[in-house]
Fold this sequence. Notes:
This protein has eight helices and ten strands. By secondary structure, it is α/β, with parallel strands linked by helices. The chain has a domain at 1-78 and 191-230: P-loop containing nucleotide triphosphate hydrolases (Rossmann fold), CATH 3.40.50.300. The protein has a six-stranded mixed beta sheet, with helices on both faces. It has a four-stranded antiparallel beta sheet with strand order 2-1-4-5, with helices on one face. The longest helix has 16 residues, at 170-185. The radius of gyration is 17 Å and the shape is globular.
Amino acid sequence: MISLRNVGKAFPNGVVALRDVDLEISKGEFAFLVGPSGAGKSTLLRLLFREDVPTTGVVSVNGHDVGRMRRRQIPFLRRQIGVVFQDFRLLPQRTVTENIAFALRVVEVHPKEIKRRVAQVLDLVGLPDRAGALPGQLSGGEQQRVALARAMVGRPLVLLADEPTGNLDPVNAAEMMKTLLEINRLGTTVVMATHAAHLVDRARQRVVAMVDGQIRRDELAASYSEGVVE
């Protein structure tokens, strides 16, 4: 499903974000990316949905060489990948329904199908009664769940989550984690970058620990402390 082979990423300012990264994530897996700030976690995620390209090596998602894709092919890749960020990135003047439906309207999904899918993902994230609210009327936890619903409405094969609980209180963070695990249980491959040790420890999923742009440990059913090398 996801493959990185000898991947390196250097930026024009001389910063080397990734060095000789080899990683395989199978369909249906849940993998945490952990490690200190600046370890390369977010850079790795950006390579997967083609927001950036590797300097060296090969990045593949669902059999596609992401780094060699032509520009016109990128939208088709991104329809297979849902992305959730730490900042919610909701459109402030659009309702919850409109925020979630936006991506489907762009690709001209039939309105009846849009309505059906939006209702499904709102149920999935536990917000069926907030469909008509604006982002400013929602709590931080609710906004992040809307962002998750937006990422899932296209029925992606892969969900990438970059610190999705970073701005949430412990209760909402736990609820978000519960929903992400349910999404994975339903068949979506999930890769989540996080510093939330307590959530990793409870979930006991695969832990990929990064330090200085390299993978130092890769363990199944691991805890945060087992997976982090300082």
